Amino acid sequence: MAGDRALLRQALSTGEETDGRVEFKERLSREVHLSEARFESLAAQLRHRVLSGDGEATYVVGVTDEGHVAGIKPDAFSESMDVLNLIADEAGAHLDAVETWGTKDGIVGVATVKDGGTLEIATDHLIVGTAGHVDHGKSTLVGSLVTGRPDDGEGGMRSYLDVKPHEIERGLSADLSYGVYGFDDAGPVRVDKPDRKSDRATVVESADRVVSFVDTVGHEPWLSTTIRGLLGQKLDYGLLTVAADDGPTETTREHLGVLLATDLPTIVAITKTDLVSAAETDAVQRDVERLLRQAGRSPLSIARHGTDAALDEIGDGVVPIVRTSAITMDGLSTLDTLFEQLPKTAAAGGEFRMYIDRTYRITGVGPVASGTIESGTVAAGDSLLVGPVQEGTFEEAEVRSIEMHYHRVDRAEAGRIVGIALKGIEETDLERGMALVPKSADPTPTRRFKAEVMVLNHPTRIHTGYEPVVHLETVSEAARFEPLDGQLLPGDSGETEIEFKFNPYLIEPGQQFVFREGQSKGVGTVTQCIE
Ligand code: GDP
Ligand code: MG
User: Fold this and answer.
1) Residue 145: domain span
2) Is the beta carbon of 138 within 6 A of some atom in ligand 1?
3) CB-based contacts of 194, cutoff 8 Å, min separation 6
4) Could you tell me if 93 and 199 lie in one domain?
5) Model confidence, pTM
6) How many domains does the structure of the chain reveal?
């Protein structure tokens, strides 16, 4: 992550002072600096720097004692950061952030070291997936919730949240969420600017419950990002927006179909109620209620039955409907109450597993795999298997560090969105859809499996040889269907065998997936993996 040069310049011009917070190091190596005597004096020095800087020290690595910018090779830099981590740990401090810059001889970096152990973050983290037709107010609603401020009706709020792909920050924390807020004893903990790292970090640090919103991009329904958003993460709840001045559309119907088919407890927000009369909002709400009943669900009007009823009955076929306006802020406190009190639904426990969503390389850190932890926990230093790689085998890698919401953490558990920096593997070997599991696991890749599927939308019946793209966890791959009865009818459920066309993946019974080919689409559940 190329940082702001001012940080480097400032550190260099401050220089190393006896009672200052800045320390220059050319490099730190395991061999030299971890020897007992050196290690202890380095820890004492770091302690001194942290105290001199009122709890925060700055380590400039890749420069000589005189402050001459030398730059060191990436491997040496990585090793230096590992060693600095250990020294900081010994001194009761932790590495809070690392920024690097390229020089002609390698890299130079500035590590910010903070007092205290690595952050203990709130144990309770709810992940909410938003869905709905484009312009039906998803980004705005999230923006107004997390800031507590109204929108201007002209896209003011969403500008914080609508990050274009090329702007997506390639930080160590691969933040798939686009809005975060939280709750503590005193109520909501909001952010000032939703896109500012430090605001989000403060929420994660101080709240007892953190709520992350994950966008599922409503532009073109069934875009792979939408599907990834819905299935590739351990979502706890779905939040579907329907604009009061437009009503449910085909996209609304499809998004609702996926949310419900994957059994995600869902809330419908009728947005923009300030734009139309109460009678028109009533009419839209009736349309939504009809849609839900057609899908075999019971709508629950919060206006009529109250928030407590919604809290009691959500899931189990009941879908609460809340009316909102990001302009008047109507209904937003109801959503606050729900997000403060709703239980976490995604199951934790079990063996560690994470499906890779994105991968990238960070100078000085190495390859990073990001995604949502599906089950179990992972800790820095853990030995993992990654794969299946091309040949259908798994490769070993070690967890160098874990980052979450711009915070380095020692360990992370199911449901967390994390970036895991890996040692012992190349970034080019990592692909979306691969899984990370413990080294002790004995993973068997699957090429062919049996599934129970439901065809949501297909012009005719589906026969053997039908080849849609299957989206399962973060996997997106062409697959061939062989229905057990020879065919599958639209609107019906049935059994089929499915074979991935190109690669095997680590999958297991119970996992849900979406498939799509042209206009046809459907959902399914893996019932059996066939060798
Ligand atoms: P998204 O595509 O679903 O994320 O929709 P946006 O959040 O980008 O909203 C689309 C437009 O609707 C923006 O110009 C918003 O300012 C506007 N908007 C969103 N919510 C409201 C609302 O409650 N009332 C009014 N009047 N406008 C809104
Ligand atoms: Mg949006």
Assistant:
1) 124-341
2) yes
3) 142, 143, 146, 147, 160, 161, 178, 179, 180, 200
4) no
5) 0.61
6) 4
